[in-house]
Structure formats: C-alpha cells, structure tokens
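Need residues for this backbone.
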C-alpha cells in the first residue's frame, strides 16, 4: 500500500429484520452466521501487507449493535490487531435505539466515542410505516444512554415517507428541540428496486411525494435545523460546530480508506473496490482463501478528478482549487471547464477566491450538478 489509508470501514451485515425501504447488504434472522463473519473479517484484515495507524473507524451495516457484547468485543479485538488507533481516533458505530440501554459500559470499554442512531422518525405511525421496531420513548432513552460514553451523537431521519405532509415533517423536526445531539443526517425516502417498498409502489399501494413537496421538506429541514444551531455542512448532513463526521469527510475529500465485510466498498491507490454483496458468497470465498472483492475499478486520472469534484461539491463550503489540484493533479478547467461554465450560467455554482461551491439552488439540485460534471 503506497498510499496508506488512515480510515477503516467495517460492514456488519446483521439485523433483527429488514425494513421495507432497505436495500443494504444484510441478512435478518441469520445470527448463526455471526461467528463465521467474525472469522472472515479477521482473515480479510490479515491480508493487509502492513498494520495501519488510523484516525477514524466506522462500523456500519446492517446493525452493528445487533451483535452481542461478547461478539462486539471480539470484532474490536480483531480490528485492533491490524489497525492501531491514533490519538483522538473517531470511533463510530451505527446503532438501533433498542440496542443501547444497558450496554453503555461495554461501548465505553471498546472506545466507541461516536454513535449514529437509526431513529428515522419520532412519530409512532411513521415508524410503523417504515418498519421500525422502536418507539419514541426508546429513542429518548437511547439518546440519554449515549451521553454516558459518546463524545458525539448523530441521528438519522427520513422524510417524504408515504402520505407524509409538510406539517408531519415539521412536527418530526420539532422533536429535536432540547435533545442532546450534535449531528443529524436527513435522507429523502427512496424506492430501491427489489425492496418491499418498491413492490408496493409498482402495485399502486405507495405513491412518491411530488418533487415540489420533497423540495419543500428539504428547505424546511435546512431552516429548522439552522434555528436549532446546526450547520449545514454537506448535502444531507448537519452538525453543531466541531461535530462534523471526520470519517465521512474522508469520502468527500477523496482520501483513501480501507473497507472490509460483505458489500463493503473501499478506495486505495486510486482504485475503487467492492466486496461481494452476498453475505453467504462472501463467507464462502473467504473460507476458501479467496478474495471477496468482486468489483475493481482503477480510475483513469480524468475520471478520478471528475468524481472527486462531484463528491467534493457535496460539502456546502465547496472545494478549493489548490486542494483539488493536490489530490487530482488537475485544475478545475482541465477537469470540467464546460460543465462548470454551464452550471455557473444556470446559477447552480459560484466561485470565490479559488473555491467553487453550490449556490442555494445548486444544493437543492445537487443530483443534476453531479450528472453534468460526471458527463453521465
């Protein structure tokens, strides 16, 4: 590894059940596979040519907190044999609100200092509609429990659920007032092919919110969270000052990172890779001593630069040309002169002192900006 990563992502593919909108790599009610998974992660990490010193560690899924305390401890011990934490390492775990209370001491002992809580909503009817198994009270209890060990607490929220109105979403956002959280990620509900929600949509049992309503909900999110002291620092991310996700910033700035586990996608030495998304196939390949990587994409310099530019623009503060040139070796004009000129003329981009960033309109229409830059 000539360009050693300082960030590691571990995908833990186990859940209590699969929510109707979820198309992530996971298995439900297959806990008998966990021990095989732990052994497979150990094998995958052992294939690294050298140990790493890391600044961020992120356990996602799936639901990492679905593992028992013993299994989580074993997983952390496995990771730490090859990945030594630097001082002030950010250690994030995605958690279900039902899995936190009573386990605080274990999380603290493992050095977890940031929690990403899968809340999605505070409303009982919406939670039921989204197939979530927790209640509002359990959310509040989990948030309180996290205060005893986590330096940073993030929650996920979903908007534009079936039949959700703007006022419904306003009431969900109002629940945040006074809660001891310092990071929020908000996502528009999407209908992914193969999910139960997709089937309901194609059968006419669900309907997608209109584009106007979705944009109204997004605008309301930005305004309401600003009133609560959250800075909008990335398309879907809001943080109190100093609590931005350091791990996710690695993705947005084009830095290398190692990823292990089924479906995990990493980026090393200018090459993207992804492990097989089948949990069973992942286990079988590793147990046979074979690499679980099924997709390897060595990006040409121009493609890599365009991708870096598109991803970098997700950050509200934009991307500085000096930083861009340091990573890509190209200037903005060399990379995407025509696209940038067109986007500026459309009022989606602005430039200031060698930095380009999205305008307020560009933030709302980011997907169109990315398509134009990538030429897809």
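Answer:
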């Amino acid at each position: 590894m000539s360009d050693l990563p300082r960030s590691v992502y571990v995908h833990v593919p186990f859940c209590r059940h699969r929510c109707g909108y979820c198309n992530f790599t996971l298995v439900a009610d297959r806990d008998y596979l966990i021990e095989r998974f732990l052994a497979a992660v150990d094998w995958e990490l052992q294939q690294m040519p050298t140990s790493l010193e890391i600044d961020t560690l992120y356990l996602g899924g799936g639901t990492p907190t679905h593992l028992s305390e013993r299994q989580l401890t074993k997983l952390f011990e496995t990771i730490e044999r090859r990945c030594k934490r630097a001082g002030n390492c950010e250690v994030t775990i995605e958690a279900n609100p039902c899995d936190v209370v009573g386990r605080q001491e274990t999380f603290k002992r493992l050095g977890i200092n940031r929690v990403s809580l899968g809340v999605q909503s505070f409303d009982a009817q919406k939670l039921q509609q989204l197939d979530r198994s927790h209640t509002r009270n359990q959310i509040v209890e989990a948030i309180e429990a996290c205060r005893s060990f986590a330096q940073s607490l993030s929650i996920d929220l979903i908007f534009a659920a079936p039949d959700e109105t703007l006022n419904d979403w306003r009431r969900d956002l109002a629940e945040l007032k006074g809660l001891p959280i310092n990071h929020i990620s908000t996502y528009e509900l999407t209908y992914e092919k193969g999910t139960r929600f997709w089937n309901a949509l194609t059968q006419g049992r669900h309907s997608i919110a209109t584009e106007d309503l979705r944009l109204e909900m997004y605008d309301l999110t930005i305004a309401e969270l600003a009133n609560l002291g959250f800075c909008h620092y990335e398309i879907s991310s809001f943080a109190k000052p100093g609590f931005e996700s350091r791990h996710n910033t690695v993705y947005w700035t084009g830095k290398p990172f190692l990823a292990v586990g089924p479906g995990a996608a990493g980026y090393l030495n200018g090459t993207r890779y992804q492990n097989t998304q089948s949990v069973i196939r992942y286990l079988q390949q590793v147990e046979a001593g074979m690499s679980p990587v099924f997709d390897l994409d060595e990006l040409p310099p121009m493609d890599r630069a365009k991708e870096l530019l598109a991803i970098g623009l997700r950050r509200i503060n934009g991307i500085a040309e000096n930083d861009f040139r340091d990573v890509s070796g190209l200037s903005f004009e060399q990379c995407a002169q025509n696209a940038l000129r067109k986007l500026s003329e459309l009022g989606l981009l602005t430039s200031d002192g060698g930095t380009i960033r999205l305008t307020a309109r560009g933030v709302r229409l980011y997907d169109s900006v990315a398509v134009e830059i990538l030429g897809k």
